Each structure stands twice: as C-alpha cells, then as structure tokens.
Amino acid sequence: MLRFIIWRLIHVVPVLLGVSFVVFSILYLIPGDIATTLLSMFYTEERAAMLREQLGLDRPMFVQYGRWLWAALHGDLGQSLMMRMPVMTVLLDKTGNSLILTGASLLIVIPVSFLMGTASAARFRKPFDRFTVFFSLLLASMPVFWLGIALLYLFGVRIPLFPMSGMYNMANPGGILDLLHHLFLPAVTTAATSVAIVTRVTRGAMLDTLSQPYILAARSRGLPGSRVIYRHGVRNILPTFSNMIGLQIGYLFGSAIFSEIIFNWPGIGLQLYQSILHRDLTMVQGCVLAVAIIFVLGNMLADIIVYALDTTRK
Amino acid sequence: MGRTGAEPQRWDATSPARSGDAVLSVERLRTYFDTPAGVVKAVDDVSFSLNRGDILAIVGESGSGKSVTAQSIMKLVAMPPGRYASGQVVLDGIDLLSQSERALGAIRGKRISMIFQNPRAALNPAFTVSTLMVETLRRHDSSLSRAEAVKRAAALLRAVDFPDPERVAASYPHQMSGGMCQRVGVALSMACEPEVLIADEPTTALDVLVQATILLLLKRAHAERGLSIILITHDFGVLRALATRVIVMYAGQIQEQGRVDDVLANPQHPYTKALIQAVPDPDSTDQRLHQIEGQPPDLLNLPAGCSFADRCAFVMPKCRSERPELYEAAAGTDVRCHLFGPEASAHQ
C-alpha cells in the first residue's frame, strides 16, 4: 500500500511538469505582446524593447520556461499585472475559497448520487428508478450558468431564502453559519451536473453488478435482499464510484468557475474570469496552473482509494 | 445407440423407488419472461417430483429451460422480466412460490441450496472464502458465534478435501483455480446441511479431472447424508455416473422422463433418441458425428403442435396441429409424443 502511494506520488511529477509546460506555452503562444499591454499609452519602440529585455521576453522560449519554472518551484509565480501583487499570494487566498465551494459540492455529490444510484438500481424499472433516470437527465441537461441564474432568481429574488452573492455578509459577518448560508446556492449549482452523471454511472455499475452470478448465489444462500444489495452488490461498485468521484473533483472545479462568477464567490474561477477580462496574463497562468494541479491531485487521491478497495491486487 | 454396450459406472443409490416419498415436487410450473418482443415461455407446464435420497438429472440443450427450472424452484428468477404464470413447488408441504422473500430467506441455503455453472463467477470477488462461509452459517444460525462459525467453515472446507482449510478460507476467489472455487461452492451449499441440492451444470466449466473430483464430492454427500439432488447437465457422462432418474427437456417442456438405465438404453421419444445418438462414441466406426437437423423452436413463437415436429424423423400430420401430452410409453417412462398417445397404442 505504502509502496503504491509512493509510486503514485512519483508519477505525479512528470504529469505536473507536462501541465506546467502546457500552461506556460499556451500563454507564450497566444497573440499579443506583454510589453505592449504593460506600457499601453506610454508605448514607444525603445521602451518596449527595454522592457522586453528587463523581463527576459527576448530570450528563447525554453530559457523563459526554465526561469519561470524555477521561480514557480520557489513559490514565485510573478507579479499580477493588474493588481501589482504576487500571484502566489492571491492564489493561496482564492484557492482556499474555491476548495470550500468544491468541497461542499463534493459533500452533496457523494451521498446523493451514491444513494440515488444504488437505490434506483435495486428498484430497476420501478417508479423510483424511472424518477431517478428522468431527474438525472433533467439535471444533466441544465447548463451550470443557467441553473445558477435560475436558482439565484428563485431563492435569492422571488423567495429570498439565500443571499445573492459573496461569502460573508459584509455588514454583519456571522462566522460558519453565515458562510454555510452563502455557500448553499453556489454549492448546489456546482454539484448539479456531477450529481446527474455520477448517479447514472453508479446506477449502471450497480445494475451490472446485480446481474452477476455471485449475486444470484448470495440469494440462493438465503441472504436477505438488503444484505445482498448493500453488501455484496455495493462492495463491488466502490472502485468504480471512487474513480468517478476522483474525476469529478476536477470537473467540479471547472463548474465552480461558473458559479463563482454568478454568485460572486471570491475563488479561483472568479479570479480567472476577471484576469482574462483584464488581460492579466501572469494571473491567468497562475489560476490555470492551480486548477490543473488540483485536478491531478484529485485523480491521484482517487487512484489511491481505488487501489485500497481493490481486493484482486492484494 | 452406440453407447448401450458401455457399462455405466453409476453410484449405487439406495433404492430410488418410484413410489418413494417426494421431498420436492414441482407441479405445472410455468415460468414466463415478458420481453418487448413478446412472452418467452422458458418453462411451460413442467411437473416432476424428487424422491428423498434420489438424484434426478435434467438434461437438454441450451435454451431448453433447464436452468430456468432450477432457478424457479428456489424462486430466484428475476421478476420482472420473469414471472410465474402458474404452478407450485412443494418442499415438505410448503409451496415455495407462494412464500414471501422473507420466508424464502430462511429456506434458501438452509433446506435447499444450489451450486452454479461458473464456479468463480458464483463467488463474490470482494470477499474471502471465510467471509462468505461465516456469513452463510450465521445467517441460518444466529446463535453461532463468529469464532464457532470460522471453525465450522474450516471443517466444511476439510470435508471437500482441502488439506489446508485455513489457507483456503483466507483466499479470494481470484487466488484459486476453477476446481477449487467449485469445491468452495460445494462447501457453501452444504454449510447448513440442506435436504435438497440443485446442481446447475456443476462441472461444465471444469476440466475432466476436476469434474471427477466434484462428482465424487456430490456422490459422497448423497451417500453419507442422504442428500437429494437435482442435477442439471447436458453431459451424458455425468448423467450416467450420477443420476438415478432423468428428465429430458426441450423447448421448456418435459419430453421424456424415467429411470436413467431405461432412458439411456431404450429411449422412446424421437428427440431423446436423436440426442443420445448425437453423443460422440469413441468405439463407433462412423466417421461422421450425428447431429439433429434444424434449430430449436423460437420460444416466442412456439408451434401449435409438438415443438419438436419440425426436426422429427417420425413426424405425423397430427404432430403439427395438436400438442401431445405426456403418455406412458413403457413401465416407468413417460413420453410427450403422439407415437405413444392413446390412439397410437390402439392401432398397435
């Protein structure tokens, strides 16, 4: 087990290196000149050339990448062009907020999709199963930005149960309860699509498991239906389920970008959106890198859990 | 009829009298499946009884309804799409088909148990042998402590000839060979000392040597404990070696039933004759293997008359229009064929 964890950790290194290179080169390759952007109205040929030399923009790409990577490894992702602050400082702050939102969505996705998926498979083609299939199709068909706005309108404007935006009540910050109150709508919005997908996959995996001979064999030994389903059946979908959830961590982070913008949640998504609008390239770079790293780590975590659950590898 | 000369090596069962007391009787069982294409009559009006201490074989080709019959007996057919259109399965005076799932839970594995065709697939890959055995033992005896159950499991594993029961108990199915898995399957089915065992093609997935050890285990359980067995098979060697009575199924119906000796030596139904002829005979000088021409009928669209009529060498006009009943063709042998109907015998 420990060996697998170490082995898996080692494998993260080349993946992250690749990610960092892709993130760096995308921004290197996109049209537009940083020096021009920075100088804006003060632009002259000489000033631009000087600034390029100063920032090392005249060096070959790989040299630039190497310098950027070396600095990044030391926690320095450069200055935000817009905020005149170290990118790292902003990222650490925003990543925490995004993790709160993603974590809350995950806490919705895991129990809801697990229970609905397994219970509907156990009631194959019965009313609850039909409802689940319909409901998950409905959820999956609603884009995050549409659902977010709809929920905001319904429960923020028409029936003002929840606050419209932000993480805390600015006038009267109320600690954890205030946070949860603000968290509810964005978390539900972020979770919706994942709930639909994971429910469907869980249901499918469970139906497949329940049609296996060992389930028939368990019934033939007199085990009650509930035990057959929730012990003999569920135990065999746990690896599939964990894998799905691992993938969803990255996916939720992606959905969170939309809900952060709609609900004005001060996370990486909102930051990314604003940085793109302001052509704050170093910040965009930092945000994309942070999202990618979280995606990779989420998958690593899922792999380790799947390994721990898989009896055939012991 | 090449095989009649070979002396069958059969277990000497304790006088399987035809009039003996039935431990299990199946009456007018109809198991249908509702599919989008229509109703599949997988088991269509099957009646038979299993006498105490008897080994009854059900033979037939794939799709003849023998496995569904086996699963129907324990009410294990998935509903939907399956349903029991009619019938009773009576075990010691109780009709199993009318029992609730809860009541059946106390009977399955305890009084009637089953072993399966694919031994590894029948064991849950997520659990060790010990977990499965302890779970089954304690399911039917709640007073049994975990430690006692573990001990009992070891004894059961030793009874199926594992020299190292502790090691096997700690194994997962994928760590064992197919034969080992099936021995575990036998041990699991014997765990609560049932009266009736249903063995659904227990040796089909195994190589010949391992087949012999599994058959030996079944014989032993039969001899030592007076276990009554329903043996589903399509292997005439297995049939010869083990069974005392045989039922030949085709298209969801019993075509012939009788003592194994009689049916093998002197098959009455044209289908049984063709089936036995199709068994390759090593002593035969024939170069060609015999086969039954044509295909089994579509269970969605059974013919109005005899379901074997299209492939039968003795087909008569009546066979196309009228479905035959089971008629007594010889002492102790019933046959579903117009050749043995009341009119036919009147002509003779």
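qc> Chain B touches chain A at residues 71, 74, 76, 80, 101-102, 104-110, 113-114, 116-118, 121-127, 135-136, 139-140, 172, 174, 185, 188, 191 (CB under 8 Å).
qc> done
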